[in-house]
Design goal:
The protein is of the alpha/beta class. The protein has 13 helices and 7 strands. The protein folds into 2 domains: about 1-100 and about 210-285, Rossmann fold (3-Layer(aba) Sandwich), CATH 3.40.50; about 105-205, Putative methyltransferase TM0872, insert domain (DNA polymerase, domain 1, Orthogonal Bundle). It has helices at about 1-10, 25-35, 50-55, 75-80, 100, 130-135, 135-150, 155-165, 170-180, 195-205, 210-220, 235-250, 265-270; strands at about 15-20, 40-45, 65-70, 85-95, 225-235, 255, 280-285. It has a 7-stranded mixed β-sheet, sandwiched between helices. Helix 7 (about 135-150) packs across helix 8 (about 155-165), helix 7 packs across helix 10 (about 195-205) and helix 11 packs parallel to helix 12. The longest helix is centred in the last third of the chain and has 16 residues, at about 235-250. The protein starts with a helix and ends with a strand.
């Protein structure tokens, strides 16, 4: 949703914009084109490898941006360290990058076999392997139900515990086979049967939902008046948090909601990029 994001950020020359999930810098490059020569972008990401690619993507804008390795839940600390008090816009893109999904060694995807990892920040301690092999059956069930809204959480958690009794579950391929085995149906489904389990584990490993809540809370007080916060989410749990937070701060007269209903990708964009089909963009403006 590049066009919509750039439009709704309401960018002007000279703006200071925060891309809190800079990833491979696709959005960041478009933002910079709108705010230079006097504007500036700060890109934040938990993934060091993504930041290396972003650096290459933005090489033509040297001196106009800074890349920061960190978690957006600590936006206030990041601002403090960079000696910034407020900005003219904050953007969150909560989806995985193609680089992450297509790197088997990162363990995010059930479509290729790799280590059961799923950490955005590979310096962090807890991986999907740790959760799958150490949580109790009840804890795994709760995780799958809460973060994946997985209908068959009980069957999957039960079989995971049984299978790991023989040997640790160490790869995405092994986990996918267990999930397929746990399913009561065979054949075509709208989404792959492992989708919700992988989503739940990734959210838990990276503590994504609590990080999002904290980041939005802090963002409101880091925006100049008239500045906007834009959030692209990819599943109902994220979108629910954004909707609730925007509504809460609107009631406090801190934010004005610009998108009463979330914007979704055009049919043409979905055709061009099928991964965008579940994207939802919500925008609010600091009062």
């Amino acid at each position: 949703m590049y066009r919509e994001v750039i439009e709704y950020l309401n960018l002007e020359r000279g703006d200071l914009i925060i891309d809190a999930t800079v990833g491979l810098a696709g959005h960041a490059k478009l933002i910079l084109e709108r705010v230079i020569p006097n504007g500036r972008l700060i890109g934040i990401d938990r993934d060091k490898e993504s930041l290396q690619i972003a650096e290459e993507t933005l090489k033509d804008y040297k001196g106009k941006y800074e890349l920061y390795h960190g978690d957006f839940r600590y936006l206030d600390k990041i601002f403090e360290s960079l000696k910034i008090s407020a900005c003219d816009g904050i953007f969150f893109d909560l989806g995985l990058s193609s680089f992450q999904l297509e790197s088997p060694e990162r363990g995010f995807s059930f479509q290729s076999d790799g280590p059961l990892d799923m950490r955005f920040d590979r310096d962090s301690y807890i991986s999907a392997y740790d959760l799958v092999n150490n949580l109790t059956e009840r804890e795994i069930f709760s995780l799958l139900r809460s973060f994946g809204e997985e209908r068959y959480s009980s069957r999957i958690s039960n079989l995971i515990v049984k299978e790991r009794g023989d040997h640790p579950i160490s790869t995405t391929g092994e986990l996918t086979k267990i999930i397929l085995k746990a399913m009561p149906y065979k054949g075509y489904q709208k989404i792959h049967p492992a989708t919700r389990t992988f989503q739940a584990l990734r959210i838990a490993v990276n503590r994504e939902l609590e990080a999002l809540e904290e980041a939005i809370d802090k963002s409101v007080y880091l925006l100049n008046r008239g500045a906007r916060v834009c959030v692209v989410s990819f599943h109902s749990l994220e979108d629910r948090i954004v909707k609730k937070k925007f509504k809460y701060f609107s009631s406090l007269k801190k934010l004005k909601i610009i998108t009463p209903k979330p914007l979704i990708p055009s049919p043409a964009e979905v055709t061009e990029n099928p991964r965008s089909r579940s994207a939802k963009l919500r925008v609010a403006e600091r009062i």
